[in-house]
Design brief:
This protein is α/β, with parallel strands linked by helices. It has helices at about 15-30, 45-70, 85-95, 115-125, 165-175, 190-195, 205-225, 240-250, 270-280, and strands at about 10, 35-40, 80, 100-105, 130-135, 155-160, 180-190, 230-235, 255-260, 285-289. The two termini are about 20 Å apart.
């Protein structure tokens, strides 16, 4: 099986954000021509409670398949109910997935928290991109379009180094699957980052130009592969977090990178990634980078 054949995995738990994640995953799988696997983890419990869990899981997965058939007819999703904790199950399945899609908060989470522990753990540890979906925006509630007008754009936050490559690859593919979508590339730079990369140290204009050239070089080949995608470069002097959070309010998807090798809660997320994931207004894709 090649990477392009790997399915989209949607984690569901019966919560409203879980249903939003399922809807998003179904549309994304159809748009990319991929399969969809709907997953509900059966958390380890005493024997007396296992049978009740299985019945609830069967009902939830049956309802999820019905919902997908309405949203994306012909997709024919499959289902799984592994006996494991949610983040652990999704992380294991991510090894053979194109992406994992989860809701921002599941059942039992504190309403004051903007991001649930399972979402954060999955985004930190998964081996493929993880998309965290929040609840529907007011202007999307009655929207019937696959990608609502004005919310097609993909925003990608990248650094001016090789870590940008997997982020850009995912972002270009996402933009290409959305008719009329632009790809807005936000790249932050500072004099310190310029110094670390061996670039100009005291000349701000030269440092900005150096960062912009590096990102342009990284995107060149992908522009040729996806000529239909309009690319907009948005350089930011300083932290890109504020810009990415603001941009997410009017974007169909915001894409950020994650350091490789995250092995425990939060360790795989940079400060920019964690801030964006926590405060973004729309779906956020966290890409191992």
């Amino acid at each position: 099986m090649t990477s392009t054949e790997h399915p989209v995995i949607a984690g569901v738990d019966g919560s409203s954000t879980g249903r939003d994640a399922l809807d998003w995953a179904a549309r994304e799988a159809r748009g990319r021509g991929l399969g969809l696997v709907v997953v509900h983890a059966l958390q380890p419990a005493r024997r007396a409670g296992q049978e009740a869990q299985r019945r609830e899981a069967e009902e939830l997965l049956t309802e999820s398949v019905r919902r997908v058939n309405e949203i994306a007819p012909g997709l024919r999703p499959t289902t799984l109910a592994p006996l494991d904790f949610p983040a652990a199950a999704l992380t294991a399945l991510s090894r053979a997935a194109s992406m994992v899609v989860v809701g921002s908060r599941g059942l039992g989470g504190f309403r004051s928290l903007m991001l649930g522990s399972n979402s954060l753990a999955t985004a930190s540890m998964a081996r493929c991109p993880v998309v965290v979906v929040r609840g529907g925006r007011p202007d999307e509630e009655e929207e019937e379009e696959e990608y609502p007008k004005g919310l097609q754009d993909v925003v990608a936050g990248v650094a001016a180094d090789e870590s940008a490559e997997p982020v850009l690859e995912f972002a270009f593919e996402a933009a290409a699957s959305r008719p009329g979508a632009r790809l807005r590339i936000v790249h932050g730079w500072t004099m310190f980052s310029s110094m670390l990369s061996g670039g100009p140290v005291f000349d701000r204009e030269a440092a900005a130009g150096s960062a912009e050239r590096t990102v342009a070089e990284l995107t060149a080949g992908r522009r040729e592969d996806h000529p239909q995608v309009e690319v907009v470069m948005e350089p930011v002097n300083g932290s890109a977090s504020h810009t990415l959070v603001a941009a997410s309010a009017t974007a169909g998807l915001t894409v950020i990178g994650r350091r490789r090798g995250g092995e425990s809660l939060g360790l795989g997320l940079s400060p920019v990634a964690q801030t964006t994931l926590t405060h973004a207004r729309g779906p956020v894709a966290v890409v191992p980078a």
